[in-house]
Amino acid sequence: MAKGANIGLAALSDDTGSVVVGLSWSSASGDGDADVSVLLIDGDGKVRSDSDFYFYNHPDAADGSVQLLGKVPTENGSEDRISLDLTAIPSDVATVIVAASQYGSACFGDLNDLRMTVTDRSGEALLGFSIPDATIETAFIFGELYRRNDEWKFRAVGQGYETGLAGLATDFGITVDEGDDEDADGSEAAKTQDEAEEETVATGPSEAAGSAEEMSPGVAGTGMRTAPALPIPAQATASTDSAAAAPGGTTPASAPLADAPQPTRRRGTRTAKKKVTLPKAAKKSLAENDSWKPARLFPVPSYKSDREREVRATSVLLSVMAEVPEFGRRLTAGFGAPAGRMQTFTEVSLPHGDSPKRPDGVIRTERAGKLWTALVETKTNGNPLKSEQVQNYMDIAARRGYEAVIALSNDVALEGSPLVEVKTDGRRKHKVSLWHLSWAEVAHQAQMLIRHEGVGNAAHAWLLQELLHYLQHENSGCHGFQNMGPAWVPVRNGIDSETLCQGDPRAVEVVESWERLIRQVCLRLGGELGQKALPVQRAKRGSDPKSRRTELADRLCEEGKLSAELRVDGAQSILSLTADLRTGKIRTSIDVPAPDGAYPLSVAKRLLRVLNDAPADLHVETLLEGRSGPRGTLERLRPEPGDLLPKDGVAITGFRLSLFKGMGSSRGSTESGFIRSIDEAVDRFYSSVVTHLGQFEQRRAPRVASATETSGVH
After folding, report:
1. Which of 86, 290, 350, 451 sees the fewest Cβ atoms within 10 Å?
2. Which own/partner pairs from 87-90 qualify as long-range (CB within 8 Å, at least 24 positions apart)?
3. Residue 496 has what pLDDT?
């Protein structure tokens, strides 16, 4: 669509009751990100109340009409997705604004391929709108959905604001109080070396950030109609507000890369309904000894067949989805399901040809008298999905007017590399969508709800905890991606013997398996931290996943290395991961920029002090302009911090911190397995190194806490 154009959704699809909006961009450098937000606007062009603003700390509506699904990795980067149930949008809402904002001085001109798409509930793309002319704007309205004569229409807006989200919000009646941002330039040039060192050690992020009461004197919670205060994402900081604000909530075991100010609740403000999270650490056991095993709602016996595992896993999952609305909605919103009453069924017999077929499960959701139905096919224990089986369910769903088939397995789907091949009959008017869900994604969503975001009541939190315990049990068969595939051993042998040639299709298979593994590592890490973790794609404009994987496969044949980069949402630095198949070593590393204006020796001492509890074998390398500098292990450098300084006095730009670990040899998940060793390497590096770096990295101006946050809205 062209900028300013509009079109009715009914002209594009017969079923637009629920749509999914996607905002995407790419970056050749891998840097750059933005916060997505949604505003509900009344007929006067203003928000009705503070709850009409949806953002990172207030991601969904109680009625299910709006749900921010978060970022998902795509072929060239990531896409932020938003589920809109248009049948549930309140009648006095005239327009739904979809926007995004950049951090601090960053602007949308730094990003490539800005694009908005809208898909119907079957997953079919209805429209797309690209913004090729972004320059210095720090906020953008991508598009809007609006009512016209009882019909929903879309308008391609593409309107930018140089004044950021504050300027955008003011246009829609939101009162913004930016507060006094911290002076984060870190300038200490006029101080003596000792003064600089003492100040950098003594000053913590919380001291500079200030309290939410100081920053946010807004009026949310007073019953006023159009004056919620808006949080302005000043610069990228990691936010654990969701966990911290929930009564009884806990901070993630591993903190994000950069500290963020924690909003405090102001006296006298109205609070939203409390949400419940559960602590990660179990309460002290009353058992006499370790042989006493606690009773579980979902016990996991030693099953003799994969079929038994599949039946039990399906029943356990579907029952919890139906009982815990937040969880069921979280798993199905991206598949086009409406926000309604959900019921689930197992082992349903459906006629098909000479003999009936029995899908593993059925999900039905009802809203406004209309039913949404999905058939579920489940695989556990690493068993692959079967194309013929999934094809049968697609045919049954099409004939019976069902909306979707959900294939659930340990595998992770990639763009351009489908897990199963199915054919659709174009002559059929009714469309059926095929979706894939990984057990790792199921566990991730359960963990996010019970550890960080919270659910409606304690019983639901306990149910999710029992589900998570079941999924993580070694006998459940629901462990996620756990096999590098049949090409893994031949490729490793070919690299070892130097007989693997570029163009070998087996190398492409290994690259795809590596990409699946990295996506699963991100899900697991993000669930622990309570933040989105995504692979970093340094995508070139117009590149496609097939050519990118072919290029990576050729590099694997030449160098014998598999590499990836991960970014935790709001983090300042990127975590790099390299598996060297020739040396059998895994390297995890991170580049930490040096604070501006500080004395080099003070910086070196401060870094070593921050890493006091890090492993002695941590490798520290000084980064200089255009070249590498001195390096050594933490054990050797601790008594002599000056050894990190270059002899010629060249300015230090940062430090590279690395840990090395031997990799497993097998393709599967045994004790010596490659996948297990990757998980252990990331866990060790993050918990023992990265979690401490927030005390060292130059602080960024904090996101300004809003009355929405301080009034308990999540």
Report:
1. 290
2. 87/17, 87/18, 87/338, 87/367, 87/368, 87/370, 88/61, 88/63, 88/64, 88/338, 88/339, 88/367, 89/40, 89/65, 90/40, 90/63, 90/65
3. 92
Alpha helices in 401-529 (DSSP H): 439-447, 458-472, 488-496, 505-529
Q: Is 692 helix (H, G, I), strand (E, B) or coil?
A: helix
Alpha carbon of residue 630 to chain centroid: 36
| Burial 3-41, CB ≥16 within 10 A → b, else e | eeeeeebeebbebbbbbbbbbbbbbeeeebbbbbbbbbb
Among residues 588, 347, 295, 227, the alpha carbon closest in space to that of 462 is found at 295
Mean pLDDT across 185-197: 39
- Model confidence at 30, pLDDT cuts 50, 70, 90, reads low
A 10 A CB-CB count for 68 gives 21
* Of residues 24 and 187, more confidently modeled: 24
The whole-angstrom separation of Cα 453 and Cα 57 is 9
Q: How many residues does the chain have?
A: 714
The tokens for 647 are 């002899």
Cβ contacts of 676 within 8 Å, gap of 6 or more: 664, 669, 670
Residues 6+ apart with CB under 8 A from 388: none
Question: Mean pLDDT throughout 623-644?
Answer: 91
Q: Are 432 and 404 in contact (CB under 8 A)?
A: yes
- Give the list of residues 6+ apart from residue 675 with CB closer than 8 angstroms, or none: 481, 482, 483, 484, 517, 664, 668, 669
CA-CA distance, 632 to 618, in Å (whole number)? 8
Tokens representing residue 497 in the block: 């013997």
DSSP 562: E
The two tokens of residue 561 are 């290395």
Pick 169 or 584 by higher pLDDT. 584
Residue 458 has pLDDT above 90, yes or no: yes
Q: Is 38 helix (H, G, I), strand (E, B) or coil?
A: strand
Q: What's the CA angle centered on 136, arms 60 and 568, to 5 degrees? A: 45
| pLDDT tier for residue 182 given thresholds of 50, 70 and 90 | very low
Q: In what order do the strands lie in the sheet with 404-409?
A: 341-346, 361-367, 370-378, 404-409, 433-438
370-378 and 404-409 as β-strands: parallel, antiparallel, unpaired?
A: parallel
The average pLDDT across 70-97 equals 88
Q: Dump pLDDT digits (tens) for 491-524.
A: 999 999 999 999 999 999 999 999 999 999 999 9
Sheet (strand 95-101) strand order: 6-8, 151-161, 139-148, 95-101, 35-41, 53-54
Looking at beta carbons, which pairs linking 147-151 to residues 24 or more positions away fall under 8 Å? 147/93, 147/94, 147/95, 148/8, 151/8, 151/9, 151/10
* Percent above pLDDT 70 for the chain: 80
Q: If pLDDT is split at 50, 70 and 90, which confidence band does 273 have?
A: low
* pLDDT at residue 271 in the model: 36
* Per-residue model confidence (pLDDT) at position 133: 86
Residue 60 vs residues 158, 245, 372: alpha-carbon distances, Å? 24, 16, 20
Q: How far is CA 406 from the centre of its chain?
A: 21
What count of other Cβ atoms lies within 10 Å of the Cβ of residue 326? Answer: 20
Average pLDDT, the chain: 80
C-alpha 417/C-alpha 438 separation (Å) is 15
Round to the nearest angstrom and report the end-to-end CA distance of the chain: 34
* Residue 519 · residue 73 · CB < 8 Å: yes
Q: Which segment, 171-180, 227-236, 341-350, is predicted with the most confidence on average?
A: 341-350
Nearest to 228 by CA among 54, 82, 97: 54
- Span 282-293, pLDDT tens digits: 788 888 888 888
